[in-house]
UniProtKB/TrEMBL annotation, chain A:
Gene3D superfamilies: alpha/beta hydrolase (3.40.50.1820). This is Lysophospholipase, alpha-beta hydrolase superfamily. Pfam families: Abhydrolase_1. Keywords: Hydrolase. Residues 32-160 form the AB hydrolase-1 domain. It comes from the Bacteria. One of its GO terms (molecular function) is hydrolase activity.
From TrEMBL, chain B:
It comes from Micromonospora harpali. Residues 6-91 form the Carrier domain. It comes from the Bacteria. PROSITE patterns: CARRIER. This is Acyl carrier protein.
């Protein structure tokens, strides 16, 4: 647990298993893994990417966003700037001073782009899964999604339905998401966030990898992302949904490790599975 | 069950109850207890337990490495005994008898 930006955040750090691969030059970036909004936690990254990244030689930081998982849940403070402030303060508290590789799932990717717009010199690369930089069109979709969840969960029988379809733990998590949306201003505050200026976003010069599920509507935003950040490599995984990180961690790992070598100059030994 | 395993299971039981907090059950935790179905642990609870293990045993017990072979679905099917055995093996490999920590 780390106190940052006035709240307590649940943080996990994993150190690299060994030295950086032979031949890699320059400072090794720290990987920071940012989960998505509402029903997500750092677990989505912990059980998919964290270990492979440490094996590839990167110190890795994971945290639960405010309101989520085991971090504090203040009643207000859920605009994009608040999440970016939390990340910036957390890195100071952890004394992470070098370059960063930011990984974001869904809205976590948006936080990564928001941080990079403010601190372009710190970010060595961005991996965004089913995500977009903070643009008005993306925020419109975030609003629709949040409002749909906020309307559905309090309905009588909604949790029982989730429990019947997906089990008791899914129902418990949905109940917690419902409490978060009821107890905080997130549903109203997040979609109304002040957005970074377009030129601040366009000034992000680091390599960017955007992964999408072929069956998810979020991929419709890919051309706009490439229009804004032409260096972006877009990968669409056919037949996958918004939950592609959890459903296809093997494919996500493969594309990430290839991109690190090809676009970021961070060659990684192929992870050995024992 | 070896003495080392016995003491690890006791340690682990304490950590699991701390992680579950209000959700802790009254049931006795054994080597056959499953994290998801018996204890009702969510994936984030397992991450929290991993953090406690790291604090308790240091990097000798590489929990992230251990669970990396699982995915989010199968991590729930994990039994307490599998984790106890992993910890015991890791500590033995380190040359320090588990009971002496």
């Amino acid at each position: 647990m780390v106190k940052a930006n006035g709240i307590t955040l649940h943080v996990q750090r994993l150190d690299p298993a060994g030295p950086a691969p032979v031949g890699r030059t320059g400072p090794t970036p720290t990987a920071v893994l940012i989960h998505g909004m509402a029903s997500d936690t750092m677990a989505s990254w912990y059980f998919t990417m964290a270990e492979p990244l440490t094996r590839a030689g990167f110190p890795t930081v994971l945290y639960d966003l405010r309101g989520h998982g085991r971090s504090d849940r203040p009643a207000t403070g859920y605009a994009l700037d608040d999440f970016v402030d939390d990340l910036a303060a957390l890195l100071v508290e952890l004394d992470v001073t070098g370059p960063l590789l930011l990984f974001g799932n869904s809205f976590g990717g948006t936080i990564a782009f928001g941080y990079a717009a403010r601190h372009p010199d710190r970010v060595a690369g961005i991996v965004a899964v089913e995500s977009s930089p903070p643009t008005p069109e993306w925020m419109r979709r975030v609003r629709m999604r949040l409002e749909r969840v906020a309307a559905r969960l309090p309905r009588e029988g909604a949790l029982a339905e989730i429990g019947a379809a997906r089990g008791r733990i899914a129902a418990r998590r949905a109940a917690d998401t419902g409490r978060m949306l009821a107890e905080t201003t997130m549903t109203a505050e997040l979609p109304a966030s002040r957005l970074p200026a377009g030129d601040a976003l366009a000034a992000i010069a680091c390599p960017v990898l955007c992964l999408y599920g072929g069956d998810s509507a979020v991929g419709e935003l890919a051309p706009a992302v490439q229009g804004l950040l032409p260096q972006t490599r877009v990968v669409v995984l056919p037949d996958e949904k918004h939950s592609v990180l959890i459903d296809r961690p093997d494919s996500v790992r493969r594309h990430v490790l290839a991109w690190l070598g090809e676009e970021c100059g961070l060659d990684v030994a192929p992870p050995v599975t024992t | 069950m070896a003495a080392a395993q016995d003491s690890i299971l006791a340690d682990l039981t304490e950590m699991i109850n701390a992680v579950l907090g209000d959700f802790a059950t009254d049931q006795v935790i054994t080597m056959d207890t499953t994290f998801r179905d018996d204890l009702g642990m969510e994936s984030i609870d397992v991450v929290s337990l991993a953090g406690r293990l790291q604090a308790r045993y240091g990097d000798t017990v590489n929990f992230a490495h251990f669970v990396a072979k699982l995915d989010l679905e199968t991590v729930g099917e994990l039994r307490v005994g599998q984790l106890v055995d992993h910890i015991a093996t890791s500590l033995e490999g380190d040359g320090v008898p588990a009971g002496s920590r």
